[in-house]
User: Fold this.
Amino acid sequence: MDKRSVRSIARERIAILLQLADREVRRDERLAQRYVELAFRIAAKARVRIPRRVRRRFCRKCFTPLIPGLTARVRVKRGCGGTRVVVTCLRCGYVRRYPVLKKRGGPAGT
Ligand SMILES: [Zn+2]
Assistant:
């Protein structure tokens, strides 16, 4: 199989796994984490990039789908450096900060 089809299959699997993780997180977090971990592993192996806005929805440390009010705490902080969104994973405590740009185009950052 050529690399291109490997990647498109990988992408498809990643999408399915992340969807399952989102669905499963309310019932079985462990299972959800396993789906996310698997999706990330497939991505790394197939060298597929998961879009930033998708990646942000999952804790990269413990692979928990980050659902505000359930598995994540989301705070908006305004400071001299601009507005930032602070997302804390309530399962492992991992904190991510995203700068929010005021101009059109939505949030930017890592
Ligand atoms: Zn976490």
In short: The chain has three helices and three strands. The chain has one domain: 3-100.
